User: What shape does this take?
Amino acid sequence: MSKLIVSPSPHIHSAVSTRSLMTDVVIALLPAVLCSFIFYGWNQILLMFVSVATCVLLEWAITKYLMKKPSTIGDMSAVITGILLALNVPYTTPWWVIFIGAVFAIGVAKLSFGGLGQNIWNPAIAGRVFLLVSFPTYMTTWSAPKGLFGVDAVTGATPLGVIKEGLLQGSTVPELMGSFSYKDLLFANIGGSAGEVCALALLAGFVYLCIRKVIKPWITLSIFATVALTSLLFWGINPARFTDPLFNLLTGGLILGACFMATDYVTSPMSTWGGVIFGIGIGFLTMMIRYFGSYPEGVSFAILIMNSVVPLLNMWFKQKKYGRA
Amino acid sequence: MAKRTFSIGGIHPHDSKISRECAIRPLPLPPTVYISVAQHIGAPAKPIVAPGDKVKVGQPVAEPGGFVSAFIHSSVSGTVKSVGPRKDLAGNNQMTIEIAVEGDEWAEGIDTSDTLVTAIPEDNKAILEKIRLGGVVGLGGATFPTHVKLSPPPGSKCECLIINGCECEPYLTSDFRTLLEKGEQVVIGAAIIRQVLGNVRCVFGIEENKPEAIAHIREVIAKLGCEGMEVMSLKKRYPQGGEKQLIDAVMHRQVGSGALPISVGAVVQNVATSLAVYDAVQKNKPIVDNSITLTGECFPNQANVLVRVGTPLSFIIDQLGGMPADAVKVISGGPMMGKAIANLDAATLKGTSSLLFLRADQTVRGEASNCIRCGRCADACPMGLEPFLLNRLAKAGDMDKLEANAVQDCIECGCCLYSCPANIPLLDVIRMAKADVMKIMRARAAAKK
Assistant: This one.
């Protein structure tokens, strides 16, 4: 008789693997990636290539030669970090800058902690913030691009930058808002990092992830709701000084951050309520930085700060246990 | 209105009920049966026959070895050949009575006809004694002696009897077939149990993927004019057939940690147990046979068969075309909680519900990788535990924190390991930690006394 396998139950497994989950995230990012290619052209394609290739090759090299463990690049998480990083910088960034960002994201923020699952901060955001403080000029210069098909699509400064700068020079918000329309914001007709520019493409990816049950929507919705409510409050009090809710929802990296970076499994809370609090924290901090900080944009900082609080949230917010008070 | 189900966790594996259309059919008798004396939870029974004794079908061959124990009967007529240790499904030695089959003569007083006996005896004490003498144990998996379960401790009161027809494990269909083919007997069995418990409300909990069974039992209840009985259609979700989950789904009550279902006024009995109660009380027929599902995509002769207790598995498999070439694992029970069989020469027990054949690609686990903290294990856990945390605490050997995080509440349903995208052997680790923690808790309780 043939030999039988004997092992403890359960004997079957859902088909969901780390690789399949991460691949779904890559698929969800594709519309935004395509948008960024069309709007920003060859330079954006080069940045995407350098970022993804650096992340994947570096992870392969570090796991193989430094950690002496089986390579983990098959789980696709390095690809996601590469894509997110490339969507997080202006298309005018020199390729060697994003190379440094990718080395920091994978080498320092991810693998020095032990690799996927062990890192405290989202690697792509850590990489972006590292670049922001190291190369502020490259990271905050936006100029009118020629798209892939020569479309002259965007204006020169980010809306948040225009507002911040204008307020410093004594203008009021309504005066400054004259230069944008919400339709432009929704359909990517604004300046910004590649990933900031196409709200609809990002939201489509988010819906895909929710339908595929890769992520739960609560963190993202909680960020959106908090940003909307906080800005509604300030804008309601003084519309001359503070921007309105819709503007805040559609600008900056909010949609990219809320849909794809705050929902990173590793660096977000496990429980639903923990996630809601995490989202409220990100939304509130983002608005505080936007309204009162010296940077025009605060999503990255807000996510990094809340990433640090996740272990506490995991301890405080647990799901209800069966039959226990 | 949303369909009823339990409130925490759970998963939706493909139900794979590929043998659902196969009617239950009896298999020929094997040349020899091997009847284990350890077929229930509690003390093993004590053999009361010796080699050379002639026995008939339904004659007791072992008596209870304690309060929580059960009678065991010969499932065939013939001669006792030996009484001694024999390897069980897992390959462990168990005291076993070997009987050579000679004909099929039943012990006196057993009604082997198909006549439906609807009149229920009035004396509850006599009913309980018949259940005890019939060797009836819970056939939903735990094999807890039924007469003990039906004698609630003083001070506790049953409010609701739940008949468990969920069969939420993928592949299994024997309870489904029993509901369809022996619906009358099951309903009368439930009516008997309900009467013993004080004419309480009785609810059949059946998952919505068995609409034929739901309709049939409703019809039978109406036809027999049973009072206080209803069928509740439940959403398909694993592990709904778990006692605690089913009570939550049907009564919206949760049993406290370490407490019995009766503490919230519930008693749960399985469909097959209900049938066994009918047989024992109405027909004087002890448990000598049971329905077993033989299934799996690689098993060509899908079947639900009625076999005598103690029939060697290899005999059953040979009757149905032999071992499939590409099967690498044979499971007794369902794929989520069943036990992988090491020894196909072992014999069936009262509680054996299925033989499931799986191919390598269906059952070999993937390589474990880092936890990605996705929280899927915690979302899936029907007890609201955090398997990722218990896994970490178990590896650190932190018994106090394991207990504080309720590792002892784990029902070992396997949802965590099923859901883990990193293939971490969560349940393997938690199961061992749970055993250690419960040992400590028992020692502490004993020291208090």
The longest helix of chain B spans residues 426-448. The longest strand of chain B covers residues 78-87. Residues 117 and 409 of chain B are 41 Å apart (CA to CA).
